[in-house]
């Protein structure tokens, strides 16, 4: 992802927290046509049941397998791609590669591979979770990219593993779950419209031509996760209600003591300085990332990226030593619960005990 200068983000944040997030169950819209979609919170018992599910050992193993130099076209890149594909195929997901060639600065002609995995390859609609799996080319420096984006990749694989049983019911439903692991997010020389987000640009263009984009309800893009004390904001008005669900899930987990090493200030939670999902909206898409080609084609986007960026961003220090697994597991819980609540909306009539 790119920002012209990291301090621009900090300054922008200071002057642009201009609105409070609407904390409402009304106005849930999905897809390019912004169709209404009804969703309800998980019941108290099922919320606790899912919140207690965890497999940190699997999460750490996945991070270890991904946390190697994985520049497009290198053996490490191929190894990580095969690990992601095999991990999901072992869980009986349908996995396909979207492959293409492109000439890039410095390294020349490269072969890229987006990884697209679905629970139900024949579904009519999808909730999409996405991240990128390539690492940045830095001449003379070994860059591992723990937050950028080994941890997000591992969190997605971990979600599929932890919720394996709960997700079974969405293998044949009209609405199902899709994972996208974008390739070539990083610039090879200097971030520009042509030297960046190679995979997402190609895939969005391909799906637009094929008429597939209307099947995407919501694109949730994960990036720069893994360090302690991240702060997230709502960037887009048309997904603010969905962002509020993340905020509410964090509140429910914190109120019941289900967040690891999570310290509440003891005041009304919307003013809690320790929370991750802030009750504020930043009305700008100033952070360039893999969501941009889809956003420009009116696919609704939730961009889960901390502002400001981690201090280790695009430095060799973005390695395993900076990963805070308590924070990572907290975020993983929030995203798992959000995913399940979202999907339950389509089967609530036959699973009424799961919702309030």
UniProtKB/TrEMBL annotation:
GO cellular component, one term: extracellular region
Keyword list, A-Z: Acyltransferase, Disulfide bond, Metal-binding, Secreted, Signal, Transferase, Zinc
Protein name: Glutaminyl-peptide cyclotransferase
GO molecular function: glutaminyl-peptide cyclotransferase activity; zinc ion binding
Range of residues in the leader sequence: 1-19
Catalytic activity entry: N-terminal L-glutaminyl-[peptide] = N-terminal 5-oxo-L-prolyl-[peptide] + NH4(+)
InterPro entries per record: M28_QC, Peptidase_M28, QC/QCL
CDD domains according to UniProt: M28_QC_like
Lineage, broadest ranks: Eukaryota, Metazoa, Ecdysozoa, Arthropoda, Hexapoda
Primary enzyme class: transferase
Major localisation: secreted
């Amino acid at each position: 992802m790119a920002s012209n200068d990291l301090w621009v983000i900090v300054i922008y944040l200071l002057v642009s927290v201009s609105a409070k997030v609407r904390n409402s169950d009304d106005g849930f819209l999905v897809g390019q046509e912004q169709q209404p979609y009804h969703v309800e919170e998980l019941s108290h018992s099922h919320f606790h049941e899912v919140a207690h599910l965890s497999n940190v050992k699997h999460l750490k193993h996945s991070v270890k397998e991904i946390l190697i130099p994985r520049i497009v076209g290198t053996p490490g890149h191929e190894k990580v791609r095969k690990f992601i594909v095999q991990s999901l195929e072992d869980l009986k997901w349908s996995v396909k590669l979207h492959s293409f060639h492109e000439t890039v600065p410095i390294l020349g002609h490269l072969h890229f591979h987006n990884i697209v995995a679905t629970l139900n390859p024949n579904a009519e609609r999808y909730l999409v979770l996405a991240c990128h799996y390539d690492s940045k080319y830095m001449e003379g420096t070994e860059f591992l990219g723990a937050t950028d984006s080994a941890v997000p990749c591992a969190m997605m694989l971990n979600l599929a593993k932890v919720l394996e049983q709960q997700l079974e019911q969405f293998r044949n439903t009209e609405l199902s779950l899709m994972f996208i692991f974008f390739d070539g997010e990083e610039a090879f020389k200097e971030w520009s419209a042509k030297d960046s987000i190679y995979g997402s640009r190609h895939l969005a263009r391909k799906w637009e031509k094929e008429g597939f984009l209307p099947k995407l309800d919501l694109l949730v893009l994960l990036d720069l996760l893994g360090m302690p004390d991240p702060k997230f904001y709502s960037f887009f008005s048309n997904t603010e209600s969905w962002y509020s669900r993340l905020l509410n899930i964090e509140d429910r987990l914190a109120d019941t003591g289900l967040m690891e090493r999570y310290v509440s200030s003891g005041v009304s939670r919307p003013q809690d300085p320790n929370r991750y999902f802030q009750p504020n909206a930043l009305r700008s898409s100033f952070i360039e990332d893999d969501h941009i080609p889809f956003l420009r084609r009116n696919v609704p986007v939730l961009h889960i990226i901390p502002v400001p960026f981690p201090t280790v961003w695009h430095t060799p220090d973005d390695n395993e030593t900076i990963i805070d697994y308590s924070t990572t597991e907290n975020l993983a819980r929030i995203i798992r619960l959000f995913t399940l609540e979202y999907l339950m909306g389509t089967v609530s009539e036959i699973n009424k005990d799961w919702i309030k």
